[in-house]
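I have been asked to look over a protein record a colleague put together. Thanks in advance; the entry in question is below.
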Amino acid sequence: MKPAFSVIFLTTLIGAGQGLLFAMVTAQTYLRLQEAQPLPGDTFYALGALGALILLSLGLLASTFHLSHPTRGWRAIARWRTSWLSREVIMLPLFMGFVALYGVMHYFDFNQPHLTLGGLVNIELTLLVGWIASIVGLLLFICTGMVYASVKFLPEWRCGLTVVNYTLLGSASGYTAGAVLAVQKAGRVSDYILAWAIAITLTGMVTRIIQLRRNKRLRPAVTHKSAMGVHHGKIRQVSMGFMGGSYNTKEYFHGKSPSFVCSVKWAFLFLSFPIPIALLIAGRHLDILDLMFAAFIVQIFGLMLERWHFLADANHVQNIYYQTVG
């Protein structure tokens, strides 16, 4: 398939925003369970929510460039009963609303305990809102992943690993951003968030490699023989049927050489996983914040390459015919 850069920016940026909110809620939950440790200032959570909103808003803005008529984009919700895309369109603004509420409540210190678990742990209303926001964020990841995993004629996408990788890779970049913020604003919880960022990044690397190996073993379900209904031993196509380009030749194939696609694969594997981990560890050990910030930037760029490869790796069945040039 031909990767659309609007989709690449959308999925990468909103994934990072979702992961950053997860990191804030994880930190607050951990510190609430460790009541002996003081909670970091509410500006930590408010800034995290603001950062998540900025990433989500940038992703939403990028999505409009994929629409012929952006003003009609709201109509996408009409098919929510059967369309994962419609469900994604509903879940994204809903998630953004909960993120905004979470940040505003922390900013105005609306943080009194409202619930007790087992008579031991007091739960703030902000934490309850954070948990709800996290559930909505997880549902958004599922909707985004299922947009691709539900496409029956693209076997490279149609598997559970698509949803798993969307969730893990988006969360990884968000937790990396959360670790950078925690080092600045919440020192005691920074190592905890850093450990989460490294663990999720490593897990995402494993699941993404598994999907790459799976896709490499796939074989086309349709061949020239089956398309023509003949059983000749050797069929050779010499022309794609067009002297010039068409919608079929432009939109269903990325137009790059196999070596280029392979180079993108290796680039994203290094930039998304081992390099950010090394930068995070080095930055924390040497107490150099710029290295940790660089880890986030490198990882975001690597994940954009990953998303390009994910889209380009899907081989539409019509390419058996249209991508042969005599």
Observations:
- The mean pLDDT is 88.
